Amino acid sequence: MKGVSLSLTDFSGVGEATWVGLENYKTIFADAKYTKVLTNTFIYGFVVVVFQNGIGLMFAAFLNELPGVRNFLRTALLVPSMLSLVIAGYIWQYLYAPMGGGINELLAMIGLSNLQSVWLGDSSIALFSVAGVHVWMFVGYSTAIFLAGYAGISTELRDAARIDGVSPFKRFLHLDIPLLAPAITVNITLATIGTLKSFEFPYIMTLGGPDNATMTMGLKIFLLLFQEFKFGMAAALSVLMILAVAIVAMVQNSYLRSREDRL
User: Fold this and answer.
1) What backbone phi and psi angles, to 5 degrees, belong to 18?
2) What is the pLDDT of residues 22-75, one digit of tens each?
3) Which end of the chain is less packed: N or C, by CB atoms within 10 Å?
4) Contacts with 68 (C-beta within 8 Å, 6 or more apart), sequence order
5) What average pLDDT values come out for the chain (263 residues) when binned by 10 residues?
6) So where are the chain's domains?
7) Three-state SS string across the chain, please?
8) Structural class in CATH, domain 2-262
9) How many CB atoms lie within 10 A of CB 97?
10) Is the peptide bond before 178 cis (omega within 30 degrees of 0)?
11) Which stretches are transmembrane (predicted)?
12) Taking a C-beta distance cutoff of 8 angstroms, is the pair 206, 120 a contact?
């Protein structure tokens, strides 16, 4: 409640807060700068959730067929998540560097120089570049949860499908995915909550640039507090972020749970 009341004021952190009512909220929805922040946040969240869980599901399906190396490879996938977010951000900032960066140098080595880019300096791809780092860091978590889901699938069902001549792809599509519904629900919910409030990678790698292309709600709140000293506006954006996370998570969870019941 303190945050909600603060969001209805104009307060710089010192002195008396001035009551402004809903002006902060009106500014957020009327100012293109803030609507871009909201748009960036949802695009960032969508990209991370889709690719983190999609890649994690593919890794889990692959590792489930290789019990001999499953534990080793699963541990390897979790290594990125053990790094500090700050260290990971700076490492990838170097890899994305337009001159001498690892990615552009690798593309040149394999004859794909035409694909080289200013990954963090091009407003059309910067947000996706930062999202890619988020996916890289946490895809191991999604894989581990999917593997736990695979452990709960009866081996008799999979063996029966093999005996009936069901192809691996059809077995994955019509047997594995329906039975992995609880793991899918958990992964999507956790990834959604984590990404909608994320600010670390955009802050470390781009500081929201170029031209606010990577500015997310979490990062904007941080900058409003500690650089612009607009506590009331930061509180208003925080309230909206909490509401967005709660609403999206509840709608997702409700749909995914109902899907589990139908399956």
Assistant:
1) -100, 125
2) 999 999 999 999 999 999 999 999 999 999 999 999 999 999 888 778 778 878
3) N
4) none
5) 86 85 92 93 95 95 84 83 91 93 94 94 96 95 92 81 80 86 90 89 94 94 92 93 88 77 61
6) 2-262
7) CHHHHHCCEECCCCCCCEECCCHHHHHHHHCHHHHHHHHHHHHHHHHHHHHHHHHHHHHHHHHHCCCCCHHHHHHHHHHHHHCCHHHHHHHHHHHCCCCCCHHHHHHHHCCCHHHCCCCCCCCCCHHHHHHHHHHHHHHHHHHHHHHHHHHCCCHHHHHHHHHCCCCHHHHHHHHHHHHCHHHHHHHHHHHHHHHHCCCHHHHHHCCCCCCCCCCCHHHHHHHHHHCCCCHHHHHHHHHHHHHHHHHHHHHHHHHHHHHHHHC
8) mainly alpha
9) 17
10) no
11) 42-63, 75-95, 125-151, 172-193, 231-251
12) yes
Residue 164 burial class via C-beta count within 10 angstroms: exposed 0-12, middle 13-18, buried 19 and up: exposed
Please give the structure tokens belonging to residue 63: 């590792």
User: What region, left, alpha or beta, does residue 154 occupy, with left being phi > 0 and alpha being psi -120 to 50 degrees?
Assistant: beta
Instruction: Provide the token pair at 173.
Output: 């599509």
This prediction has a pTM of: 0.91
User: What single letter denotes the amino acid at residue 65?
Assistant: E
87 burial class (0-12, 13-18, 19+ CB within 10 angstroms)? Answer: exposed
Which residue type, as a one-letter code, is found at position 94? Answer: Y
Q: What is the largest CA-CA distance in the chain?
A: 76
Distance CA 164, CA 101 (A): 51
- Provide the token pair at 137: 């860091």
The C-alpha angle with vertex 22 and arms to 18 and 23, in degrees rounded to 5, equals 70
Residue count of the chain, please give it. 263
